[in-house]
Amino acid sequence: MCSGQGIEGHINEVRYPGDNHRKRKQVRLQLVILPKSKKQS
Question: Could you give the C-alpha distances from 21 to 2, 11, 29, 34, 36, in angstroms and in order?
Answer without folding.
Answer: 11, 13, 13, 20, 24
